[in-house]
């Protein structure tokens, strides 16, 4: 049976509601980075959460995904709050002046060629005391592999704040 698109979105909002997944970590005025943003599922809601004085930087490898974010942002009058960044294959590549209050890596860390190098780069733009939420799909990332990722992230110098529940997968909250 094929599920109509409307129901797919409805079910995702029920299971991975952006306000429930990231809302407790974002406040008005924050700078938020959405790594591997895809078509902007989280970016759009996060742009609403940061209010008039905040901003969201939507990062993706695929220009066509960023184009989708751009269209959604325009449609919801959020274009001024969302900066689109097309990253190269092997790095995030944000400007050196970017400092983030919150970083989201949802279902994407396992897609990077080198998660250690990737997280070392995240550490360069995450503010001291800022938070990074990593959520990985249980069907792609085993418990054993996720525990190795946690150890690697600790070794880089991140502080592990916990493994929040009900985020839609294997979750890790860290700070610097």
Structure, described:
This protein has helices at residues 5-15, 18-22, 41-49, 63-75, 115-125, 143-156; strands at 31-35, 55-60, 82-86, 100-106, 126-136, 159-162, 170-175. It has a 7-stranded mixed β-sheet with strand order 3-2-1-4-5-7-6, sandwiched between helices. It contains 6 helices and 7 strands, in the order H-H-E-H-E-H-E-E-H-E-H-E-E. The model has no long low-confidence stretch (mean pLDDT 93). It is of the alpha/beta class and 176 residues long. 36% of the residues lie in helices and 25% in strands. Helix 3 links the parallel strand 1 and strand 2 (55-60). The protein starts with a helix and ends with a strand. Helix 5 (115-125) packs across helix 6 (143-156).
Q: Provide mean pLDDT, rounded.
A: 93
Low-confidence regions: none
H-E string: HHEHEHEEHEHEE
What is the distance, rounded to the nearest whole angstrom, between the alpha carbons of the first and last residues? Answer: 46 Å
Helix content percent band = 25-40%
The DSSP helix count reads 6
Structural category is alpha/beta
Shape label: globular
Strand proportion: 25-35%
């Amino acid at each position: 049976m094929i599920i109509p698109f409307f129901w797919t979105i409805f079910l995702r909002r029920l299971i991975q509601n952006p306000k429930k997944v990231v809302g407790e970590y974002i406040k008005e005025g924050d700078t938020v980075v959405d790594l591997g943003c895809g078509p902007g599922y989280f970016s759009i809601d996060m742009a609403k959460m940061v209010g008039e004085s905040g901003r969201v930087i939507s990062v993706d490898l695929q220009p066509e995904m960023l184009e989708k974010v751009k269209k959604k942002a325009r449609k919801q009058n959020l274009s001024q709050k969302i900066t689109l960044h097309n990253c190269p294959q092997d790095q995030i590549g944000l400007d050196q002046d970017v400092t983030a209050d919150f970083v989201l890596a949802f279902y994407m860390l396992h897609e990077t060629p080198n998660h250690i190098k990737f997280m070392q780069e995240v550490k360069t733009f995450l503010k001291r005391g800022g938070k990074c939420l990593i959520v990985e799909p249980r069907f792609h990332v085993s418990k054993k592999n996720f525990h190795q990722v946690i150890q690697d992230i600790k070794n880089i110098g991140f502080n592990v704040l916990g493994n929040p529940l009900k985020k839609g997968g294997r979750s890790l909250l860290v700070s610097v």
